[in-house]
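### Sample
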Amino acid sequence: MGYIDAHTHIVFKETITEELLNFALREWGAPRETVLMGVKDVVKILDDANIDYVGIMAFPSRKLGIAKEDYAIRVINAVRDYADRFAIIGGVEANELSIEDTRHWLERQYEAGISAIKVHPPHMWLKPNAYRPEEGGLRQLEIIYQFAVDHGLPVYIHTGTSAFSRARNKYGDPIFVDDVAVDFPRLTILVSHVGRPNWIATAFQLIRIRPNILADLSSIPPKRILDYIPRLSEISDKSIYGSDYPGPGVHDIKANLQEFLNISMSKEVIKKIVDDNPRRVLKPLSRNR
């Protein structure tokens, strides 16, 4: 049995758009061959890295001009023959759709087989608690969270800054996730990147005190993870590994995993983070078979 990488941005030549290709080359700095791989090529890479399955972010981001709500469905259709190797994380842009369209796309993505939902505040330009009356009362966002609760889907919420040119980093403060945890106590929330680099202390404390908030460790360089989160062992039962591959600075999914496996923590703790915890929280597409 291998490992789980619960947060990647893998794209396939079968589904990539010109806009997404240009974005990946320009903003990620990813090699062209990395973002033009076929599904079979990716499966071979996962086999070589001893990775059982990966979570792939396939959420929309109109502000960045790279995807809309149908993208998650197209990715799911492309990987159907390898349903046990991929978990597709979809999403809808609450501040771009009507209430009716929000429900429509959530239903369509769920029927297709999404494993989780992503909310990316800096890329969507909204606070994760924007459904609150004092934060604008965005009903569509409340619908997303309630849908996730009703259908047993975890929600990834990006925290921390984004280096992408059109990102609005004021929305990256994890303190706004606290409202979501309180208002939706049965919702499993993954705080992606643990607030790195500006708000790690805030994210860490929320993970400690809120039972439904977990840490998604993606994008933090494994060699520096204990510098960023020196008390990681204290939240090891609530942490999951992710690489962010092939995002900025992560161009080798196997090397990133090996670096994490070699950090100065017990093998039992590391196994929780790269195997037990992500397997419990994020199910592959094959769960629908």
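The first strand starts at residue 3 and ends at 8. This sample (Amidohydrolase 2) is used throughout the tutorial notebook.
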